[in-house]
Amino acid sequence: MSDPAQSPKHQPNVLLIVSLCLNLALIGLIAIAYMRTGTHDFTGHEGRAGKVTLSAQALMRMVPAKETTIQEIVDARRKNLRELRKNAVRARVEAFRILESRDFKADEFAKALAAVQNADAALEAATMKMTAESVAVLTPAERESVVHQVRRPDRAELRRLFRRH
User: Fold this and answer.
1) CB neighbours of 60 closer than 8 A, spacing ≥ 6?
2) H or E stretch including 114?
3) CA torsion, ordered 115, 118, 122, 123, to nearest 10 deg
4) Which residues 6+ apart lie within 8 Å of 63 measured at CB?
5) Separation CA 117–CA 144 (nearest Å)
6) How far apart are the first and last CA of the chain?
7) How far apart are CA 163 and CA 157, in angstroms?
8) H or E stretch including 96?
């Protein structure tokens, strides 16, 4: 006779195994996405080999002699940039509000995403204008020095960028 107190054989829990496999696959996808994304903007972060991307803040570090002049340019634009950044955040919040709404409407969501794109474009344009004004105050020798310090996209990065679009 079988003993009712004896526990049944431990069988692998199929759902647990599937869940673990899906989690590993998700981690892999996140890692691949992270590795494939590169710095495609001029934000001033350190890149490969200690090189930086171009921004007014990076220029102040690269050309200390012009720090005061560039800081004045940044200070003059700061209020406008903050407002543009707030607009971009507000646009994203609105898009998310529409996305999670129970009465979701695709046309409203499309308009909200267009507003996000417009807000981002306005912020980027203002940032690029500030960077251009900052570069304009440099001497030719200072610009040459900056050129050697700024990270340029390599061919593989450019191919990857154009392959995505």
Assistant:
1) 66, 67, 70, 71, 74
2) helix 106-136
3) 60
4) 70, 138, 142, 145, 146
5) 34
6) 70
7) 10
8) helix 67-100
Largest CA distance in the chain: 96
Contact 60, 66 (CB under 8 A): yes
Asked whether the beta carbons of 115 and 88 are under 8 A apart, the reply is no
| Model confidence, pTM | 0.60
Judged on CB neighbours under 10 Å (0-12, 13-18, 19+), 4 is exposed
Q: pLDDT per position in the chain (165 positions), as tens?
A: 555 555 556 666 777 777 777 777 778 777 776 665 543 333 444 444 455 678 898 899 999 999 999 999 999 999 999 999 999 999 999 998 898 888 989 999 999 999 999 999 999 999 999 999 999 999 999 999 888 888 776 777 667 767 765
Q: For residue 66, how many other CB atoms are within 10 A of its CB?
A: 18
Angle at alpha carbon of residue 112, lines to 106 and 116, rounded to 5°: 140
Report the distance separating Cα 96 and Cα 140, nearest Å.
Answer: 46
Give all domains of the chain, ordered by start, each with its CATH number: 46-152 (1.20.120)
